[in-house]
């Protein structure tokens, strides 16, 4: 059960309920959120962390901290700015950016840590559109997982700041030593948004925890289904003839339909899937961003490896991810095994972009 209205289920109507049943094959950091009118419902807070514990306890709960990070757009009175929901300038540009950053729903959140103990920080970016920039090297943290999949080995951050796009997760491991703040670095000034106090005696000898690496099937490129996805539209981007609900949109119709972006010339879900794959088939997907904006592309039901990115390196070990950032004019090549039967979305997780056209889907047949 994936909860995508129009693809796998009907929306849950006000006052009614729906019971989701699913298995959790992978221990790791995930989250859940409304997928109906998500650009408004998620911005209003309809989401939560979904943590799947390891079979063997690695860290006690007090040393395993989830940080759900969101930016809210507040008015000058300090209440949620609801008037600007659906603003065309957000939909056709970089999405809805907030002006108030919270962790687990609180501003200036403080955690109390014990000196010498090991901690896992599970960072989850639930912002509609903001790409968070963070520097974990400043408190000697190592990266142990991305998007809910544990790395083969804990890794030093290869560069700083690290970017955490909408929907992405990053698990960090560190030993508490001195008080520190986590700063968001994408603005003109570093913005401290969560503080960690450290108390207790130094030199508490505790063993460094170990984590079981992800165990996912490797795609076989020789045998892979080759798929290409061209992203176009938006302000200042390449404009192509755009189909929506089977019709070509022209002139004012683009604004009336509120569809500004397209995948392979189609805004929002086409009748036909982007591709259909037999269960177990490897998929080689090349995504070309011909827009003037970065995007956070999210694949449902699967994790992939980023094999190459034009004009940028890929991370050591090519970690498994379910969401990748793609820059303006960038081409990114990903690969994965279609090992999960069903119908799955592939969309930009900048929620205004998804609403305004950046959705496609694929099918894995058993
Ligand atoms: Cu986008």
UniProtKB/TrEMBL annotation:
Q: Where is the Plastocyanin-like domain?
A: 1-56, 258-365
Q: Tell me the GO molecular function terms.
A: copper ion binding; oxidoreductase activity
Protein's name according to its UniProt entry: Multicopper oxidase
Q: Which Gene3D superfamilies does the UniProt record give?
A: Cupredoxins - blue copper proteins
Say if the entry is tagged with keyword Glycoprotein: no
Enumerate the InterPro entries for this protein.
Cu-oxidase-like_N, Cu-oxidase_C, Cu-oxidase_fam, Cu_oxidase_CS, Cu_oxidase_Cu_BS, Cupredoxin
Q: Does the keyword Oxidoreductase apply?
A: yes
Its keywords, alphabetically, are: Metal-binding, Oxidoreductase
